[in-house]
Amino acid sequence: MTDYSTFAALGLSAPRIAVLEAMGWSQPTPVQQQAIPHVLDGKDIVGIAQTGTGKTGAFMLPALELIRAGEGLQVLVLCPTRELAQQVMEETENLARGTAVRASAIYGGVAYGPQLESLDRGDEVLVATPGRLIDLMNRGKAKLKKVDFLILDEADKMLDMGFRPQIEAVVRGLGERPQTLLFSATMPHGVHDLALRMTREPIWVEVTPSGTKAEGIEELAYSVRPDRKPDLLIHLLEQPGWEQVLVFSRTKVGADALKARLDQAGISCDVIHSDRQMKHRTRAIDGFSGGQVRVLVATDIAQRGLDIEGISHVVNYDVPLDPEDYTHRIGRTGRAGADGQAVTFVTAADLGAYKTLEYRLGRSLDRIHHPDFDFAGGVVREKPTGTKSRSAGGSGSKAGETLTPEELEALLSFEDDS
Ligand code: AMP
Question: How far apart are CA 222 and CA 232, in angstroms?
């Protein structure tokens, strides 16, 4: 694994690192570690990060590294409020210390004079609220054709404030498509949609530390035979409280097959994956958010950053290989104080991946055997007392039935809490 624990390792230049040291920034924050190398590499970024995570440095440090002093406006930051615009401008000035790069901010509610002057001066970095910027563009004062970096900061707040048309108008006023970095504290559907439209093959950065989970999420793992997975899901969907369910499938083919099976069972369901057109994805997400669609099956590509409220259950139909993916996925449930449940299906073949996942998460999930679906041929060993496992749905365990050695091994391995 690449070591990104220093600013030098991220690819920043020595003079800039000296400035950071003088500011007391000895180490990059996680969002900086994740974003800076990709921005330096020319990639678009969608970052889910709140204020306080170091996100300003994450977008501004690499931008400052790549622009040229004296060549006019090259970095445009759009943000929702005057306070944030001032804050980003001040931080930019600090980060650009020792260079000839200058930053200015424009926002509404104040006189035009000084803002017009800074535009005339051709400061390299402009931090603006969308309303005032459009105003100045319409007056022919803000010239944005040479902008190389477009940064949308607190995108969720900008959309909440109704700035979407202004953001789109600003983008139409740019020249060639700039490298685009979008940051948002949350990723509701509107922001997700904006992110997909504005960025090109973005790198997704999310600062949810691996191994942590949101409060109020119950995590369960079901042992299941591969051919019984659809039936186990249908059985669970019949349980009380299983209202809006997001299901993750490892493959597109698997996602489509599952949808067909749920359709057959009369369960309202839709699918999102990268082969689906944007308009289909939007329709599926809207239907799911609106409650008309009860089950949404998604592949990982489609789920990054998705923030849909009111999800009661998340199902990992296949064991996620990466603990980060697991954490992102289960974070979709239990939002906004609501309780949620995250269920992972584990087949005998998945046991290795499942053990690795638990090891890397640093915690074990509550394990459940359901006699009708269990991979040990439908036979459930009497639970030893004191283990974490339990039987679901009130089905009692049947003791004393014979297991094949392979089944016993798989079962013991699943039971083993080490
Ligand atoms: P932000 O999330 O960009 O609003 O940054 C939050 C605060 O953390 C600001 O005061 C930054 O100056 C500070 N900060 C950002 N990155 C670092 C770092 N790597 N080391 C120390 N402080 C930082």
Answer: 9
Nearest protein CA to atom 1 of ligand 1, as residue: 54
For residue 93, the model assigns a pLDDT of 96
d(CA 293, CA 279): 16
Beta carbons of 391 and 369 less than 8 angstroms apart: yes
Contact 23, 7 (CB under 8 A): no
Between residues 210 and 151, the one the model is more confident about: 151
364 ligand 1 Cβ < 6 A:
no
The pTM of this model reads 0.60
Q: Give per-residue pLDDT as tens, 336-376.
A: 556 788 999 999 888 888 888 887 777 778 888 888 888 76
In one letter, which amino acid is 311?
I
Angstrom distance (rounded) from CA 380 to CA 393: 14
Which residue lies with its CA nearest to atom 10 of ligand 1?
Answer: 52
333 touches ligand 1 (CB under 6 Å): no
Ligand 1 near 405 CB (within 6 A) = no
d(CA 59, CA 80): 17
Domains in the chain, CATH or no CATH each? 8-206 (3.40.50.300), 217-414 (3.40.50.300)
Q: What element of type H or E holds 134?
A: helix 130-138
Give me the mean pLDDT over the 175-190 stretch. Answer: 91
Predicted confidence at residue 389, as pLDDT, reads 40
CA 274 – ligand 1 centroid, Å = 35
Which of 300, 46, 327, 329 lies closest to 208 in space, CA to CA? 327
Rounded to whole angstroms, what are the CA distances from 191 to 34, 187, 209, 315, 371? Answer: 20, 6, 22, 24, 43
Residue 259 confidence (pLDDT) above 80? yes
* pLDDT for residue 390: 38
Atom 8 of ligand 1, residue of closest alpha carbon? 54
